[in-house]
């Protein structure tokens, strides 16, 4: 019995060994086939990638073609935008010309100065576009747009002011300096010219002459050149070389100054009408002989008073006046 049991066990062992060998024989070709399939897939992927690279080098892929088409359209749109900006800028220049030469002349108004409005923005504003493939197209376009925006803003400010002036035109016409500050027949010699770059004969340096000097006899009547309120009325003192001085505030940004007077006939706060006598010409302050130093200031900046005399002159009289202008020395250090 024991022998029979041993034989059975041996038979069972042989069967198991045979089964294991059969599994190994079957699994080996399966792994080999799997490896071959994976290898073929990898080789195929590599070949397709190489073909795609070579093809894309010589030919555009649909995606690249779409990108290039979009880029071409962008360039065309930028060119069209530049043309439209140039056209708009030309139109604004025409409006500005009419503004300065027509509209502001109708209101006797000086050219509007908007501080810094026509200056270009710093280059840092466009730094984000530097280095881009299309920077030579984008940066000039944006600079054009910014210039257009500044011009539009300046004209908007100008027309806002003109709109206000049109509302106050009647009051403005009587307020803006528009007549001589003294009788023209009282002039005794050449008029001292307005000259922001005058070389002072005593100081020996550039010192602006911000008004005109009208030589006349001491005591000559001095008139207000427009409706105003008295801002300063100095009856004594040196006053920075002006001597006895009157300053009138006409509103609308205008002021007038009357210096080297002999007498001051008004008080601070008085309401003055055009043509009203406000003082007598004299020789006070930094002055070498009797005369009236007359200034017109617009928004704090001296402007040439002669440009306002022509409202009270014919063309021939104005030309004769300009011929009569001289660099004179009615003022000195003493």
Which radius of gyration do the C-alpha atoms yield?
46 Å
Q: According to CATH, what is the class of the largest domain? A: Mainly Beta
The assigned CATH architecture of the largest domain is: Distorted Sandwich
Count of spatially separate domains: 2
Please name the CATH topology of the largest domain. Answer: Glucose Permease (Domain IIA)
Low-confidence stretches: none
Average pLDDT metric: 79
Morphology: rod-shaped
The share of residues in extended strands comes to: 15-25%
CATH superfamily of the largest domain: Glucose Permease (Domain IIA)
Largest sheet: 9 strands, antiparallel
Could you give the count of β-strands? 11
Describe this structure in words.
The protein is of the alpha+beta class. It has two domains: 62-167, no CATH class; 184-326, Glucose Permease (Domain IIA) (Distorted Sandwich). It has six helices and eleven strands. The chain has helices spanning 2-58, 62-106, 135-167, 169-175, 306-309, 315-323; strands at residues 191-192, 212-215, 221-223, 228-234, 244-251, 254-264, 271-272, 277-281, 291-298, 301-303, 325-326. α2 packs parallel to α3 (135-167). The protein is rod-shaped, with a radius of gyration of 46 Å. 20% of the residues are buried.
